[in-house]
Specification:
Elements (H helix, E strand, L loop, with lengths): L62 H5 L7 H10 L5 E2 L1 H10 L3 E4 L3 H6 L17 E3 L3 E8 L4 E9 L3 H8 L6 E5 L6 H11 L4 E5 L2 H8 L56
Parallel strand pairs: 1-7, 2-3, 2-6, 6-7
Antiparallel strand pairs: 4-5
Length: 276
């Protein structure tokens, strides 16, 4: 069953309590600088706003830049994240790792089975610095398969079908609506928002969306939850919008260079509306 941890007092997310503030506010930037805002029921219009553009790291890693990164055991960072969530609503890949490994937030991967098989999965074995006891669960929001499309020149998603048993499966895993849950799809821009709406309507209060989804998480953390791009004198991140490449300027060790092989982090699939 999901683990329970005590977090400094803060108000849980309530997507219905603040109609004047939308989730678009928390998606205004790809930076890891904290912005304390609230979510509301007006999530759907924010999907376009979540199509953020991660920025290229600049020369030199400052103290402020390091302060925005998660490292196991760094008390000040952990305490800040604990005070920010779940009210902040959307966590980037650094914040989500802290929530998962330090603060007892389980990961709910809502991608389809073929995505997990072909793109990648969250770690099946967790490292020793994962202290919280939180786990990773998989419940697809939309079932689909991939098929090669000669016009597109690549595999595209076919036969999308909503998983009508999604909420029943979630409730079976998390019977307590106070369970701490990070909701993750491919890129955090569509299905995660739909799932956040569904869980909020079901009464779950400690729910957080993963900005950038699995694609951005996987660029940052490898299968053993080690950081792929280690901070150095100069770091380049090969994300959407990056304008250069090369391994010698990164400050990262060669064993982590697989981070540079990934395509655009955005999922260009036109996912159906699960609730329709």
């Amino acid at each position: 069953s999901p683990s329970s941890h005590t977090i400094p007092a803060h108000r849980p997310i309530n997507l219905a309590s603040s109609p004047s503030i939308t989730m678009a506010a928390i998606a205004s930037s790809a930076s890891v600088a904290p912005q304390v805002v609230r979510s509301t029921k007006a999530i759907a219009p924010s999907r376009a706003a979540l199509a953020i553009k991660p920025t290229r790291a600049r020369r030199g890693v400052t103290v402020a830049a390091r302060a925005a990164l998660y490292f196991p055991g760094e008390t000040a960072y952990i305490e800040q994240i604990a005070s920010d969530y779940p009210e902040k609503g959307i966590a980037n890949w650094e914040e989500a790792r802290c929530l998962f490994s330090e603060l007892g937030y389980n990961i709910l991967d809502i991608r389809s089975e073929w995505e997990i098989d072909s793109v990648g999965n969250f770690p099946r074995e967790l490292p020793s610095d994962h202290k919280s006891g939180a786990k990773i669960y998989t419940v697809p929001l939309i079932n689909a398969r991939a098929q090669y499309d000669s016009d597109a020149g690549k595999k595209v998603v076919k036969d999308q079908q909503p998983n009508r048993d999604f909420m029943n499966q979630v409730k079976k895993i998390f019977p307590d609506t106070n369970a701490k849950i990070i909701i993750c799809c491919s890129d955090g821009r569509n299905r995660a928002i739909q799932a956040l709406e569904a869980l909020d309507e079901a009464g779950y209060v400690n729910i957080v969306g993963l900005r950038g989804g699995y694609n951005m998480w996987n660029r940052t953390w490898d299968a053993k939850l080690r950081r792929r791009n280690l901070p150095g004198d100069f770091q380049e991140e090969y994300q959407h919008g990056a304008d250069g490449c090369g391994v010698h300027a990164t400050g990262a060790s060669f064993q982590n260079q697989d981070a540079f092989q990934y395509p655009d982090w955005k999922d260009d699939t036109d996912w159906i509306d699960w609730s329709a």
